[in-house]
Amino acid sequence: MPPAKKRPRSYDSARTRGAVLAQFGHVAEAVRGLTPERLSRPTHLGEWTVGDLAGHVAWIADSLARGLDRPPAAGGGLLPHDWPFTTVALAGKIADAARETLTGAPVAELYERAGARLTEALAAHGDDRVLDLWIGPMRLGDFLVTRTVELVVHTDDLNRAAGLEIPFDRQALAACTRLLADALAVKAPGGAVEVRIPPFAVVQCVEGPRHTRGTPPNVVETDPLTWIRLATGRTEWAAELDGARVSASGERADLSGLLPLMA
Asked: Which residues, in sequence order, are CB contacts of 110 under 8 Å at separation 6+?
């Protein structure tokens, strides 16, 4: 008899909403004071400058508010762990839309406008409101979990590129870590490898013998930020293994062929 299909992880609505607004607020506070010199610095994201990256984060909030202004879609089939696999094909379209929306406005103005619109939109709509997205219909409550990934990942990008120390909201970091861990389990279903990302997530993945008790024979462990960088292509498995930021034991514990999940 095949194993029962795992139920999707549930996320606390109030905490997720608070995490999205809190992380956006942390970024807004940090980037408002950036000088033109720092905004013009390069990033590790192709041709994007720090200013481009900061504008993109403002667009994340602004586009969500705009999406809630549109008529709702029917249904809501996409779940948070489905979302990472839909993003690569839309990268160019998202960049074009962000430029059209944000061109010409100072960074401080972008964030003030986007933050106000996002706060108002979230107050007006419940989690079951279905968004009509490019990737398909998705419940607002589920889509907000994906926003923690965007905000946490780009907070890290900004910190590294601009020499900032933008804090990570704990709930945003937790939701981001868990979503990406669940996506790994979807990509490589099984129970041969246990992936531990304390204190936020433990998942089993990869086909092979399933352990039932005691210490699993194949274990991967890392910290949340290293995991997020691996899952999104900001770093490589071999480098993190060599730097002892990832520990991997067991013959099936090499995840290099499964990463990144999104890039």
From this structure: 54, 55, 58, 62, 102
- DSSP symbols for 166-199: PPPPHHHHHHHHHHHHHHHHHHS-SSSEEEEETT
CA distance 159 to 241: 23
Retrieve residue 202's tokens.
């433990």
Percentage of residues in the chain with pLDDT exceeding 90?
Answer: 79
Answering whether pTM is above 0.90, one says yes
What 3-state class would DSSP assign to 6?
A: coil
Evaluate whether 196 touches 214 at the Cβ level (below 8 Å).
Answer: no
115 alpha-carbon distance from chain centroid: 19
How far is 48 from 165, CA to CA, in rounded Å? 20
What local confidence, expressed as pLDDT, does residue 76 receive? 76
Residues 6+ apart with CB under 8 A from 122: 17, 20, 21
